[in-house]
Specification:
- This protein is mainly alpha-helical and 249 residues long.
- 78% of the residues lie in helices and 0% in strands.
- The chain has helices at residues 7-27, 31-39, 45-66, 77-94, 100-120, 128-149, 153-161, 167-191, 199-222, 225-248.
- The model has no long low-confidence stretch (mean pLDDT 90).
Length: 249
């Protein structure tokens, strides 16, 4: 059935989109993580997921393209991307009947563990040797989770953050990986007809998302290295809280 969204509810969703867009431009992640839980209080969660898919993919494309000069500083991107897509397809096909709850709990536990590790061992980092060995596993797991329950952001975000890359290389890495999984998701949404009837809302959502990228990018370039790290940790913490909220509701 169709749900009518009031002006007030729409305003709250718009505020969520604005906060999510700024978080996205600063840290490379956080748009669906912030928007979907808030929007799903007022609209069907499926609507929220579909409407934010295209704006998020465009944001990833714009942010990634603007940092493409740092490609030489990135690590393991091709393997993470390739294994991630295979994982996403497998997750979408295999895990249709799996209960989401244990998967979501696993992601929350992993995020909290990474946040604790970040504060307990501030100089912790994944070395190039370790990352080369583990990247195929992490990419596969992130893809599986994306395909099964639509959550790859916190896994990818934590993993790339542990490399301690330059700001620019970090943004390029996460946005490239999200762009590829997002494109896969969008193809599925279009081919299954999920987008029809939601095109106007999707296009409207693109406006604030794209408009806020220059502001968020300026903000990112003005914070210290520690500030950038803490912004990423904050988005990871928000995502853990949002996932817990989803479990409870």
């Amino acid at each position: 059935g169709t749900t009518t969204v009031t002006g007030g509810e729409l305003a709250i969703i718009l505020v969520a989109v604005i906060i999510g867009s700024v978080a996205k431009s600063v840290t490379g992640m956080g748009l669906p993580l912030i928007v979907i839980p808030i929007a799903s209080l007022f609209v069907d969660v499926n609507d929220a997921v579909v409407v934010i898919a295209l704006p998020n993919m465009l944001a990833n494309a714009v942010l990634g393209a603007s940092e493409r000069h740092s490609y030489s500083e990135t690590r393991d991107l091709p393997i993470l991307a390739a294994v991630g897509v295979v994982g996403a397809v497998a997750g979408a096909l295999l895990l249709v009947n799996v209960s989401e709850t244990p998967l979501v709990i696993a992601v929350v536990v992993a995020i909290i563990a990474y946040i604790v590790l970040f504060f307990a061992h501030p100089d912790f980092r994944t070395t190039p040797a370790q990352s080369t060995r583990l990247a195929p596993i992490v990419g596969g797991v992130a893809g599986l989770f994306q395909g099964a329950v639509g959550i790859a952001g916190p896994i990818v975000g934590s993993w790339i953050h542990s490399y301690r890359l330059s700001r620019s290389a970090h943004i390029l890495s996460v946005t490239s990986l999200f762009f590829i999984t997002g494109l896969t998701q969008l193809v599925v949404l279009i081919s299954t007809g999920e987008l029809s009837g939601r095109v106007t809302a999707t296009l409207l959502a693109c406006i604030p998302v794209l408009a806020l990228i220059p502001f968020g990018t300026r903000l990112r370039n003005s914070v210290s290295g520690r500030g950038f790290d803490l912004a990423i940790i904050a988005v990871l913490a928000i995502s853990a809280a949002a996932l817990c909220l989803e479990l409870v509701l």
